[in-house]
Amino acid sequence: LNRRLAEFGTTIFAEMSALAVRTGSINLGQGFPDTDGPEEVREAAVRALRDGRGNQYPPGPGVPELRTAVAAHQRRFYGLDVDPDTEVLVTAGATEAIAATLLALLEPGDEVIAFEPYYDSYAACIAMAGGRRVPLTLRAPDFRPDLDALRDAVTDRTRLLLLNSPHNPTGMVLSREELTAIAELAVERNLLVVTDEVYEHLVFDGEHVPLISLPGMRERTVRISSAGKSFSFTGWKVGWVTAAAPLLSAVRSAKQFLTYVSSGPFQYAVAEALALPDAYFTGFRDGLAAKRELLSAGLAEAGFEVYRPQGTYFVTTDVAALGEKDALAFCRSLPERCGVVAVPNSVFYDDEKAGRTQVRFAFCKRTGVLEEAVERLGRLT
Ligand code: PMP
Ligand code: GLN
């Protein structure tokens, strides 16, 4: 492994999911649902396969049906006006969108300010692009960003802000006021902003506001989302980027040489998913809101300190309340102790002290599975 990637090794999600399989534990670690998304969307994929749509290389920017559906979805939910031909790019999940965006926009040595705890691919992709990550630490209990610290973190080398709201792993959702302050700073300091909005439909308290909708941001924001989390098909790896044409074209240049294209038939199915009625989106969110309550209450009962998430399908806890000193060691021992797998937030921080005893649990699982997990966690010794 080269020097740029030496610190990354194996992602914690792979380690913890393998541990769950090996020990037969309930996997509340890696964030994927244990129930697939809507039947009609699955059928749409089958139809596309059978009808020979997408079985050969789709067009580089994505199939027109999906680009049109992405634009229509953004108009429906946020009143955004996006040109499907010049402002939408389909990617292999949000993961490729993040990689392509950073590879396209960063010069070696450029600084990228991002919230920590980071989603793990951010640090790796910044490194692959030769950039320098500059953390803005979100602190318990509410994980709100310190906007004065953000302002102070901007230097002459700052190229872009990499934002994630709803935020994985903490569940923090940026408010309109916070986003407005960030937008003002971006305009004042002439920064680009990349927004990872894969949990846009999973906000339980407050509302999801795309930064790109705020004054001055249309020309300087690269907005990323994906079908995995909104439609419970994380294996399909269909994501997308929307941005003003000059930015989008830069990202497309990089994307061409990463995967060129991907997920042909699934692109048609996701086009149909994006057009599902509002009731689908609210039903999906309300179902997860109930699971948030179930798991949060169970964890609190079991003695964890619980930081209530406003969005996403993760809940961050602190295990110091259980007398634990190290989240990674705790997560590695948890399967043996009670047959449950979780993810240590500590690996998502540069600041070792900040998240040392934080542990994340996913609640995108069937109710019975969560109940069983809660029971097991209650027996933790
Ligand atoms: N960003 C965040 C914050 C995530 O949690 C994830 C995982 N879904 C991704 C990006 C990657 O998304 P995808 O599976 O579409 O590549
Ligand atoms: N986004 C998911 C999570 O945070 C998993 C992503 C992955 O495995 N790379 O758990």
Automatic annotation (TrEMBL):
Name this protein carries in UniProt: Pyridoxal phosphate-dependent aminotransferase
Organism whose genome encodes this protein: Streptomyces roseoviridis
Cofactor: pyridoxal 5'-phosphate
Domain Aminotransferase class I/classII large: 26-377
Coiled-coil ranges from the UniProt annotation: none
Keyword Flavoprotein: no
Pfam family, one: Aminotran_1_2
EC category name: transferase
EC numbers, comma separated: 2.6.1.-
Entry keyword Calcium: no
UniProt keyword terms in alphabetical order: Aminotransferase, Pyridoxal phosphate, Transferase
GO molecular function list: transaminase activity
